[in-house]
Design a protein that fits this description.
Blueprint lengths: L1 H15 L13 H18 L4
Helix pairs in contact: 1-2
């Protein structure tokens, strides 16, 4: 159950990290890319039944 909640929270954070405001456009895709890597790692762990 906690894995599903973690997956949902990481997905929401990934969507929230997309650069929208003018001051954050210079960051590029680094914030959402980093969170995407964490999300991918969690999905792999879920697939392997580690979590």
């Amino acid at each position: 159950m906690i894995a599903i909640v973690l997956l949902i929270c990481l997905t929401v954070v990934l969507i929230a990290a997309i650069p929208v405001w003018p001051y954050s456009r210079q960051w590029g895709y680094a914030p959402s890319g980093g969170i995407g890597v964490v999300l991918l790692f969690v999905v792999v762990l879920l697939a392997l039944h580690v979590i």
